[in-house]
Amino acid sequence: MKFLRQLKPLLVLLVFLAIWWIAPTVMKRFSQNAFYEFQAPLIAAQGYAKDLQSYWSLRTRSKNDLIEAGRDLSRINAQYQNAKQMSEAQSEQIARLESLLNLPSRPEFRYEIARVAQRDISAWWQQIIIRKGENYDIPVGAAVVYNGGVVGRVREVHAYTAIVELVSSPGFRMAANVVGEAAPVTYLGVVNEPFSPPRGEALYVPPSITVTPAEPRKLVSSELGGIFPAGLTIGEITSLEPGSDGYFQKASVRLSPQLSALREVAVVIPYSRENNDQPTEEN
Amino acid sequence: MEFDLRWPIFLLSNVLLIVLLRMVNDTASIYGFYFCVPALLLLLPALHTPPRWGILLCLATALLYAAPYPGSPTAFLIVFGVGYVIFRNFSSQLRRFQRMQLLTAITGVNTLLVLLQSLLLAPENTQSNIYTHRVLMDTLLSALLIYPVGAWFIDWQYSLMLFTGGDPRSDAPPQ
């Protein structure tokens, strides 16, 4: 009798797991969304609390520090404005050439800026939660970037938050290029060692590419994936080793330490997707 | 008509601990480690609630914990369920433990649960030595965190039970 009483919690657990296993997927998904939305206000509040903390820590800075920071930022802004003007001129030239040569247009994007509410980086998942979701038409699968390059990809979108899988997450894959090389490679995230900056790996690196720790090669996004704009920095290839197939090489990619400390990111939303979502005049 | 307030106390306390832990992990992620303490969420529900509510409370906690994470929450249901079963089966002994003994028991069970979680959630095609190293380091740091945080959390829940008119000392472990 005592043995049965000891087994009772285990039996209840097994019964519940059996019910969960045979339950329809829609019910499991609904319960997962319900539990997430229940705690979503707390996640958003956490982000606001961090912003408040940053504000009060900045208030303790001297006025000279803030004036110098403002001056440095205005210089960077001036450089970006110049680069933006050059980019607009080049875009007009590209559009002119496309119309002359009857070439298809490249996809255009808009950027939705979002604050990071929560970071979760462990051996099993590496993700951030941003404070924009369906209320800002964030699509699932959209690319997420920051001023240093690629952040990751939107994995789930909820009512007013979205979960972004980081580029350092195990299982993350994307098409990439080594700067100066035409051949595409595959970048993938890996489990990171403790107390170390994030890193990844690149597969199918051509044998012609060589690197040294003193002269790493930059790895950038490729437009072959169709999600990320081309040319965004992923990381730096610091070492190479022979791949499993004996021809291509496998690279170790050093990612930016900023990935673990991001406060603000930009979600890249292609205009073509927004046009497809809008009803046509005929309809 | 009396209402049993134990399960809302334990559920909301678990929500509070989950939120606080995520805030700590938000900062810890900058330095490359992660705290995971499922055993702390299961102890008092296993000791102080009737079994029919206790297991449901623990599984609801598991679903709350797993909601933001990718994939099916089945692994978390298994981990939390096993933790509840362990605490429930040893509840008579745990109620007689001193505070440090209790925290050490929580640490032991937490280590077991984190290792079980690492087996269930191991990524495919990963370098096993790096993964094992990372999991062991996170487990060790989580075990160290349990002593200060666990002492506060147990006191917090007992205080809430006293505040709502419950009597945790009748079957609580001695100070």
**Molecular shape of chain A:** globular
Give the overall shape of chain B. Answer: globular
Assign the structural class of chain A, choosing from mainly alpha, mainly beta, alpha/beta, alpha+beta, or little secondary structure. alpha+beta
Oligomer: heterodimer
Biggest interface, chains and residue tallies = A-B, 48 and 51 residues
Number of strands of chain A: 12
Question: What is the strand and helix layout of this fold?
Answer:
The complex is a heterodimer of chains A (283) and B (175).
Chain A: H1 2-22, H2 25-59, H3 63-101, E1 109-121, E2 126-130, E3 143-146, E4 149-157, E5 162-166, E6 173-178, E7 184-189, E8 199-205, E9 217-221, E10 233-242, E11 249-254, E12 264-270, H4 271-277
Antiparallel strand pairs in A: 1-2, 1-12, 2-5, 3-4, 3-12, 4-5, 6-7, 6-9, 7-8, 8-11, 9-10, 10-11
Chain B: H1 6-31, H2 38-48, H3 51-66, H4 74-89, H5 91-94, H6 99-120, H7 128-163
Helix pairs in contact in B: 1-2, 1-3, 1-7, 2-3, 2-4, 2-6, 3-4, 4-6, 6-7
Describe the structure.
- The complex is a heterodimer of chains A (283) and B (175).
- In chain A, strands 1-2-5-4-3-12 form a 6-stranded antiparallel beta barrel. A 6-stranded antiparallel beta barrel of chain A has the order 6-7-8-11-10-9.
- Chain A is globular and about 85 Å long.
- In chain A, a hairpin with a 6-residue loop joins β10 and β11 (249-254).
- Chain A has helices spanning 2-22, 25-59, 63-101, 271-277, and strands at residues 109-121, 126-130, 143-146, 149-157, 162-166, 173-178, 184-189, 199-205, 217-221, 233-242, 249-254, 264-270.
- Chain A is an alpha+beta fold.
- In chain A, 36% of the residues lie in helices and 29% in strands.
- By secondary structure, chain B is mainly alpha-helical.
- Helices cover 75% and strands 0% of the residues of chain B.
- Chain B has 7 helices and no strands.
- Chain B has helices at residues 6-31, 38-48, 51-66, 74-89, 91-94, 99-120, 128-163.
- The radius of gyration of chain B is 16 Å and the shape is globular.
